[in-house]
Amino acid sequence: MIEDAFAYLLDGSNWSGSEGMLALLLQQLLLTATALAVACVLGLPIALWLGHLGRGGFLAVNISNIGRAVPTYAVLVLLSVSDAGPFGTAELGPYGRAGFATLFSLILFALPPIITNAYVGVREVDKDLVEASRGMGMHGVQVFREVELPLARPVIVTGVRLALVQVWATATIAALVEGPGLGKVIVAGFFNSNYGKGIAGAIVVAAVALLLEGASTFAERRSDPLRRATPSPRKVTVSSQRDDGREATGEPLIP
């Protein structure tokens, strides 16, 4: 089956056309990016504001926990069987069949890590730094912009990173309600007993997930102001004068 999977991946004809692997890959990337962007727009302002105020933590965390407890596939199916409004398996532009139901389900799935990390990141900023900033004459918005947000940024980016990888992997379930994405390859392969095809789709999903994880981890490290402010170790050579007047160089030291 593994040989069949790689044979499927190496066949260029499987990557071309409107139903080829490349088109399905782009569809799933579009689904993931849109769901993540909407979740950030909806979740980040509320979570950051509550974290700055130091209130509403119970509400924010428990709403996130409820979001984790709701099965994404169950939400997708319930929205897909309804024909009210934009729901159901109707086409939604580039998002394909059941596009609205798929996006709605993925947004709900992305919100918990984004809200939780954003709230905790701002809430856990050192209170001594906050008080010192207020003592220097900064008002609330300045404290948030200049102190709390930069220090909380790594934790916030971690939440977005978790949501990104989770949403990408979960977007494959769209195929179960005739939606777009690489899930079509996986479902069609296993449904028709073409296991090499199904495994090929799973390999591509896993490979892209690793790439997204690596890129977002790099962005997370770059967003840490403390990491960027730490100077790199420099070698310092200690010199001394020998008795004969010539210079003697000691071993390099790292301060």
Please provide a written account of the structure.
The longest helix is centred in the first third of the chain and has 33 residues. Helix content is 67%, strand content 5%. Helix 2 runs antiparallel to helix 7, helix 4 packs antiparallel against helix 5 and helix 7 runs antiparallel to helix 9. By secondary structure, the chain is mostly helical. The protein contains 10 helices and 2 strands. Strand 1 and strand 2 form a beta hairpin. It has one domain: MetI-like fold (Orthogonal Bundle), CATH 1.10.3720.10. A two-stranded antiparallel sheet has the order 1-2.
Defining traits:
single chain, 255 residues, mainly alpha, MetI-like fold
Report, as a whole number of angstroms, the end-to-end distance.
Answer: 56 Å
| CATH fold annotation | MetI-like fold
The CATH architecture can be given as Orthogonal Bundle
**Can you summarize the main beta sheet?**
2 strands, antiparallel
Assembly of the depicted chains: single chain
Provide the helix percentage: 55-70%
Tally of separate domains? 1
Q: Could you tell me the number of beta strands?
A: 2
Q: Name the poorly predicted regions.
A: 232-243, 245-255
Class based on secondary structure composition and strand pairing: mainly alpha
